[in-house]
Structures are given as C-alpha cells and as structure tokens.
Amino acid sequence: MPTLLHRLLRVLEQFNAAHPWDHNAHYHPWILRQLPRRFGSALDVGSGSGDLARLLAERADTVHGIDSDPQITARAQESTPPAAPVTFTTADALTGIPAASYDVITCVAAVHHLPFTEALAVFRQHLAPGGSVVILGLSRPTTPGDYLLGTLASPLNAAMSWLKNRGRITPRPVSMTARTQPADMSFPEIVREARAVLPGARLRRRLFWRYTLVWQHR
Hints:
The protein is of the alpha/beta class and 218 residues long. It folds into two domains: 55 residues, no CATH class; 148 residues, 3-Layer(aba) Sandwich (Rossmann fold), CATH 3.40.50. The chain has eight helices and seven strands.
C-alpha cells in the first residue's frame, strides 16, 4: 500500500508539473479580505511580477513593491499602467525599504528567503500604528498535521490545475519562475518566533503548502 500511494503521488506531481498554476495568486483574494476597503500606503515585499501590488493599488493611495531580482522588477513595472499609483524598486528586503511607514505590508512566498525574526522586526518598524502585516509563507513539514495537509493538497492541486488550465499543458506562471529555495523552518517554529516579535499574530496552516500570518499594529 505505501508503494501504491507513493506511485500515485508521483503521478500527481508529474501532472502538476505539466499543468502549473499560481498557488500564491490563489490567496490574493484572501489577503485582500484581511485589509480595509481603503488605506493610504502599502508595501509589498518580494513583489515579483507585481500582481498583488496592482491589486493593492485598487484600494491604496500609493503602493511600493520591492524585490531583489532586477529583471522581474523591471517586468513588473512594464506590466503596470502608467497611471496606477504603483512603483517597483530592486532592493534588499531588510535594508532597502524606503524610510517611511506603511498602513499595509504584505509579503507573499518570500519571507522564507530572509532571516525570519529580523524580517518581521523590520516589517514592524515600518508599519504605521493601526496598520496590518499580512504574510503568505512556506514552512517545512514536520508534524502529522503538515503531512496530512500535504497529502490532501496533492489531488486538490491536480484538480485546480485541470480547472484553471482546462487540461492544457502550460508554462509556469511568471510569478513562479524566480529562483526559490525550500523553507527551513517548521510551522511550530514560525509560530513561536512570530509571536515573540509580533505579539498576538494570527497564524494558520493552509492548503497548497502555505501558511498565513496576520498582525495588526495596535
């Protein structure tokens, strides 16, 4: 039975590789639901292709996206209408954030590339009173719950791949073509360190190998 399950998961992995879809963009509507209908300024850390930054601009007066990859940053700016209140900069997430405070700070699938505790401290430093930090992150599976969610996600991922691509073999979305590295922190470690820096932060495991973190600066 374990061998059969392993083969099934392998088939699902091959199918998902041929029919990729953007797991991060799947959570963009959820991220927006955590935010006010209108706010002044937003910072998107690890902005990638700029999709989330452009969505934030529909509610914000100004949005600034930063990413360490100059090529993807340039493409994000090119894909953004000139009239949109969005700018993108190639910068380090820990040292390159403009000296300002923001009403909203988002970070999608990027914080595991950074020193976690230090990154959260920088986000807190740049968050205005009453503002919100919303993170979509990746964690290293270590608990039975992690592995159960991963097992459940595999067939659901295949179903989403089929529905979103209508059975066609497609290239990887632009937002998923940047170099990535596996997460090295477990979810319990993330919860412990996050709440030490952001007291009262709400964290939850999610499908498709993700977790969410939401914190309001009271």
